[in-house]
Amino acid sequence: MAARERSKKVKARTVLIGLVQMRSRENPAENLTIAAHRIVALAKRGAKIICLPELFLTPYFCQRRDKHFFALAEPIPGPTSHVLADIARRNKVTIITSLFERARNNKFYNTALVLSPSGKINARYRKMHIPDDPHNYYDEAYYFSSGTQGTVTVRVGGIEVSPMICWDQWFPEGARSAAAGGAQIIFYPTAIGWQREDPRGVNKAEHGAWQTIQRAHAIANNVFVVAVNRVGKDDHLQFWGTSFVSDPYGAVIAKASSTKEEDLLVNCDLSLIAQMRRDWPFLKARRFSVRKQ
Amino acid sequence: MAARERSKKVKARTVLIGLVQMRSRENPAENLTIAAHRIVALAKRGAKIICLPELFLTPYFCQRRDKHFFALAEPIPGPTSHVLADIARRNKVTIITSLFERARNNKFYNTALVLSPSGKINARYRKMHIPDDPHNYYDEAYYFSSGTQGTVTVRVGGIEVSPMICWDQWFPEGARSAAAGGAQIIFYPTAIGWQREDPRGVNKAEHGAWQTIQRAHAIANNVFVVAVNRVGKDDHLQFWGTSFVSDPYGAVIAKASSTKEEDLLVNCDLSLIAQMRRDWPFLKARRFSVRKQ
């Protein structure tokens, strides 16, 4: 086959995405206040959809097994979702993040929310792929059950978005499921880095792989991919930062610092999606189906 | 989550792979002779598995709709597979390529073969994803039916390999299916390039995407990926060359020229696969199943 000549360029249809790359402090109230200020600042600059890192409200407690951390979980709707929904409503933006959910079925989940500009919970996605580190450096499986409801795609401000969470980003099936459901932008709130005692070469290879595989989801599905990571040290971990946005060619169109907190405001031209779905019709042409187990 | 500290390095288990990046001349007999010489040369240098580009036997005829080209198809087993099987046997190597198959069901397929060192057809895979260019620069759907049998993984010299073909490389499900079937190395005989009249920027973006998505298959499945492409001009097309091998981190460990015919001999340490399947157990942890439609 040949690379396709691109169809005649269609009219641009842009949306401004805000990425809040942050480190999380000990105090949840402080993290919520910081996140709120940064959301408001991005909204003032024109962001329409703003994404926070995974479990931004607390330090990354999954590095230790401690039953006391279950007290950090909250119902959804609950105190934090109420505050975030109110911020979304006041600032006329969509907010995407993940919270530690205490569900009514007595299970605990790592749950992404899409909070609409009208102040409602527009979508709830429970992390499906829960990492269970063979080296016991972190143990998410101790805290979280796997979501069983599959991916969720929801329309916000005329744009179809799908939130997933961190380890999900290593699984092409999740991205495919989201895109088959209509997603134009996939968001991955994330908390990923390296064990500080790891050899540097391994860390570099792993960091490269993390970017490559998400860029590939963008290519395979003709979508934009937004990864919003933590940054800085937290117990054994050094988070990678480098939050980024990939366009449907897998090109990184914006990337944050590897060491500092940073807000990114990124212009995504969604007309590229329709154009590429004509030129590279992978979604239509695929000969496999993907189903949640 | 955190990038994992790698398990203690296990004993290396290496295999030498040979990539024959070639341009195809008008005369099939000439192409077969050239391929044979290059296979023998790579075998003498120690290659155990040698891969040719997609449909290496002929020019890339799919750029034109012409019923006379159906005469290029042959049964499998047939004249070309016999010659290649004999070369494999005499040189104690495995050969992977694709041929234009005229099947007994009166359909035509783009079919990959794995020819064993004992001179047998060890596996036959019929290309599932057939590109159908919206701009009519090439029209594979005019010539080939889609394979309906799914991916094939086969053991050669103690190594599990799975052949797919060209456009299949844009579909993560194929790689997943192959890996779930046990593949350690996925081979993509390929004929990809760009329309010579395309803007250079688009070509660069598409070429980048082509490499990124295959590197991602290696990451998602903890396997090696081998892409063997044509090179040079052929009618409207300029093939990209840049045949490459990706390790399970998505790192390109060898890459050929973008303009010249070239043989690559690449050492792959398969112990990395077992190591990464412990550290990054994506295959085990996935929450979706992939099935051919």
TrEMBL record, chains A, B:
Gene3D superfamilies for the chain: Carbon-nitrogen hydrolase
Key words, A-Z: Acyltransferase, Hydrolase, Transferase
Domain CN hydrolase: 15-272
Keyword match Cytoplasm: no
Pfam families, alphabetized: CN_hydrolase
GO MF annotations in UniProt: acyltransferase activity; N-carbamoylputrescine amidase activity
InterPro entries recorded: Aliph_Amidase/BUP (IPR050345), C-N_Hydrolase (IPR003010), C-N_Hydrolase_sf (IPR036526)
PANTHER family referenced in this protein's UniProt entry, alphabetically: BETA-UREIDOPROPIONASE, NITRILASE C965.09-RELATED
Name of this protein: Acyltransferase
